[in-house]
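Lab notebook: predicted structure, single chain.

Context: the supervisor wants predicted structures on file for every construct in the current expression panel, including those that have not yet been purified. This is the next one on the list. No modifications to the sequence; it matches the entry in the shared construct table.
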Amino acid sequence: MSDHLEQSQKSGSQSTNVQAGQVVVHQNALSYADVRDIALDVFKNNFEQLTSVSRESARNRAEEITELFLNELSRRNEAGLQKAETPEFQMNLLTVQKEFARTGDKDLGNLLVDLLIDVTKQEGRNVLQIVLSESLAVAPKLTVDQVASLALIFFLRYISMRNVIPLDEFQSFLSASVAPFGALASKKNTCYRHLEFAGCGTVGIGSISLDTAIQETYMGSFTKGFSKEDLFQAVPEIAEFDLTQPAVNDPAMFQFIAANKSILGDALTALGLAPAIIAKVNAFWRSKIFDKQEVRTKTIELVPEMATVFDVWENSSMKSFTLTSVGIAIAHAALRSRTGLDADLSIWIN
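Prediction complete. Output recorded below exactly as produced.
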């Protein structure tokens, strides 16, 4: 197949074609049908060299992924349809069509569509746009277990709830995100070496245990509770502030309103409290939470699939793997395409 990329010149009604790098310029807004014609011509002009049988199979797959993409784009970012004339849109779409035509892999197709929709949301050249475009090229180089490993690392190390959630809500939140990936995650060193090679992350010298990560991120959910008398005796300097709520695990007791000590620290700093007082609050809170073994036991009790995740985490490079921006983008897309995660990627990449 030729390396030369030929762009489509498809005209809708009320349109004018202008030769400017073979980009189509319409006088009126593009309709869904206009964009579909452009999208399929992009693919057709680049796959004519295949044999008739291969060409038919590739065309069917290209039409399938194009319809999926345009339907999702219309639903999630309808304004993105108007970018169909740009070289960037067409080249990124061709990447998606080409990779899905080659493999027919449904999971890969959903992942690429999710990434491509995020690309259409970007205005101009910025870091997020560059990362997403690179992710479209990298994702097809990854296996199912590698994507699953990325998704779990991202969910368990890079996502946290800002509000305290009861353990039954924590169970639903964790189960929804772990269930699609837990059994697929890999212990193999080759998995993480390849992820490094692909630019998705690095294996560092240090590591963090999974029970510690959960304990630190969800302190509010794993708090045993305390009385206000004990709190004000330990830290009398905060007696004038309303920083507690009924404990989620024992309504007769109290706990801090924050999900973890980082969020609580920000709130205490905003109140003008000195670092020494904040340290006293943190020390008091730490004395009232589940220990690491209790966190592990309770987490597996709530979500049995976590037993496998703990095993993979402890016996692979997962525990010391740090994601790059490309790794975050792919993991975010994988979570969203499989779980419906709706957090904006710009939270992590900006």
